[in-house]
Amino acid sequence: MKQTVFIVGARGAGKTTIGRLLAEALSYQFFDTDESIQISSKMTIAQMVEKHDWQYFRNFESQILEEVSQNECVISTGGGIVLSPRNRSHLKQNGIVIYLQAPAKTLIERLSLNPEDEQRPSLTGKSITEEIEGILTEREPLYNQCADFTVDASLSVENIVLSIQSYILNQENK
């Protein structure tokens, strides 16, 4: 049975990159919740948070998650999607959840090379190192709680996609 594949993980784990490649490999549609939020609201996430607040953004994010969820698609989610019990339940009940797990060091290196300040404002106002370490401490148990399959996000893109494909094929053949 073909179904929805949700990709969760911290910012910088590679959810969008892996999601696009995986969708292509599976011949599925691809959605990125952050991108969908920006298209739907006609604002960047930073603008939305500044104009409203983080809670408004999180509610909008939940709405978008439900709107884009459909069979035969890969959905890359925002890093904080797991903060909402409603979203965690939606993920678990509506598809396969893949957790792209990366150590803080890897995430910090990636985010330092490709800062997204205009797109995603700091959650805490702390340095990127302090913020990532704090976020992982808070969210790691939630990612693990949701995950059907965890992949080391520091592997090559090709190996990550192949590993996820293998897992999905195995699940479909059960």
TrEMBL record:
InterPro entries named in the record: P-loop_NTPase, Shikimate/glucono_kinase, Shikimate_kinase/TSH1, Shikimate_kinase_CS
Residues engaged in binding ATP: 12-17, 120
Protein name, UniProt field: Shikimate kinase 1
Note on cofactor: Binds 1 Mg(2+) ion per subunit.
Phylogenetic placement of the source organism: Bacteria, Pseudomonadati, Pseudomonadota, Gammaproteobacteria, Enterobacterales
Catalytic activity: shikimate + ATP = 3-phosphoshikimate + ADP + H(+)
Recorded name of the encoding gene: aroL
PROSITE patterns tied to this protein: SHIKIMATE_KINASE (PS01128)
One cellular component term from this protein's GO annotations in UniProt: cytosol
